[in-house]
Amino acid sequence: PTMEETDREAVATAVQRVAGMLQRPDQLDKVEQYRRREARKKASVEARLKVQSLINPSCSVILRTLNLGGNEELRKNHLLITLREVAGNLFFSLFPGAFIVLYLFFAFRLWCFTVLFALCLSVPEIVRETQDLIERGELLQAHRKLMDLECSRDNLMYEQYRMDSKNTHDMNLIHTYFGDMQKLSEELAKQLWMVVQRSLVTVRRDPTLLVSVVRIIEREEKIDRRMLDRKKQTGFIPPGRPKKWKEKMFNILERTVSTRIEGTQADTRESDKMWLVRHLEIIRKYVLDDLLVAKTLLDQRFPPHYDIFNKLLNMYHQALSTRMQELAAEDLEANEIVSLLTWVLNTYKSAEMMGNSELSPEVDVNSLDPLISQNVVDQLLSKYMSTLTSNIIGWLRKALETDKKDWIKETEPEADQDGYYQTTLPAIVFQMFEQNLQVAAQINEDLKTKVLLLCLQQMNSFLTRYKDEAQLYKEEHLKNRQYPQCYVQYMIAVINNCQTFKESIISLKRKYLKMEMEDTLSSSHTNMDATLDIIAKEGCSSLLDEVFMDLEPHLNELMTKKWLMGSNAVGTICVTVEDYFNDFAKIKKPYKKTMTVEAHRRVVVEYIRAIMLKRISFKNAEERKEGAERMIKEAEQFRFLFKKLAAGSGEDTEGLCDIIEAIAEVIKLTDPSLLYLEVSTLVSKYPDIRDDHIAALLTVRGDASRDMKQTIIETLDQGPSQPNPNYVPIFKEITVPTLTVPKLLK
Q: Domain 558-733: which topology?
């Protein structure tokens, strides 16, 4: 704007100010007072402008002096001359009026030149002193000197900024001259961060040092705030501000916490199979100890608004979360997955760690976020179940292979406390199941149930293989009955294992399965029981086959001329059966009872089969009487034997031998006219007797004609049948040879 426009604006502003002063009549009395006040303001502005015109060139001279080469004495002389000129010009231009001179001297910061003068001359010396203080660990004093240096530099730069904000050359000149001061600041910061890194140790050994560090950081925070406020007002902020040392302190603490967590892994899987368990235990101990120190000691050394304990708590939680996620991403083995999940889901919030009573009420475990997400937990559990499935299949296969090696040993298997033969297979299998269930229970109920279902599912498949291997064992033995030497004893152990497996399955379900889950396993349990019964039944059958293979030559003597002449075949049969049953006494009760009944039944069946083979046909009544009495006597021998073998079982063993006696009565009958009546009585008792059985029986009698046989058979077919409801058919197993005698047609 032109001078005329400026004058007009000034007049308009003056009119407006006067109008504002004289709005009421009583203000006219104060006109003289207003005039004097405005005159003082005018004089003040004019004086300020004059001082500024004197100071500005002198500041430039000082800056140029700072840049002079040569020694320190030369710079001192230049500064003294400049300062005298400034002070002299200022004094003489403003004199007279000593009051105004003094006012202007302070108001416009003439004092800064004297201070700057002294400091500028002593900067190198102060830098050296500050460096020494830092090295001696006297951090508070060092920081005080550093603050003085920074204050001098900042004020000088501020004055230069006010004079000429675009003069970067002079700004750089100041910055360069105070360059060593920046290095001091960095060196001091290093010392502070070293103390901060070891704060949990320092607070116990030298709490005063930690307090000094916190005080220094607080000082810097105040200077930062002051500089930022001035920047808002003037636009100027010194280089290096804001330092944000408080923020850096928390960053250092955060990195320290992360490093402490990561540094606890002392071993690898290759060097120690328990590496993860050790790693997690060290973490637990370190974190708990650190937080207890932070709560009881560290919290008292920091201002309340730092909220140091909660910040540290969050840092540890975040560092742990990061570490657990890193571990979860590794290729963990099944046991390692369990260790990790147990620690994350249970240990972390337990009384052994975050739930420790000494940490409450500051630490509320219910408010802590999960260390790893549910998605990661699910992935780990899925991987665990997959790995566990493969492991269990492998373990079961290996256990069975090991057990099979025992079957061919030349020494008898071990017996339990009750004397029953057994192998270690059930104990190994269920110990493995038990261990995995105990591990799963540490994580949660759901995983425990899943592992139990998996164990029983694999058990089902395993029992099928067990059945097949037992069958192969039998078949191999039949190829050479001398091998294995302890075949009978190990087959007994296999049978007993079936009962042990049953009991162990029930025990496992009772211990680890909730009642409401029973239905989900009922079909699986039924299948396993059925498979075990088949294994046991086939085992018992193979043992009886062994008995009857030894009995075969003696059974072949029955109902022959030799037998009739006084053979001791039945006596030998009884002794042989009893001898075998001395070993069979090592079979557990449910199967031993079945074994005894089956042996009894098979002996009777073989005896009756010997009759139906028609090896002998009695020539006269005397032979029939002698043969029948022998049959009755031998039936009594069998009855006595199996009553002895079944002692304590409560089993009725007489009914089967009654069949032999009933047949003997038909043979013993002396009056042929009563033959039909005797045969019909026999048929009514044992309705599964076929026509060929009756024909074979009459052939053995030796006195029934073909027509008589046919008449009796035809008459019997027309008669009613009243079988005993408890009778178990036995004749249906007996085949009558048809090559020697043609089948009788009705």
A: Tetracycline Repressor; domain 2 (1.10.357)
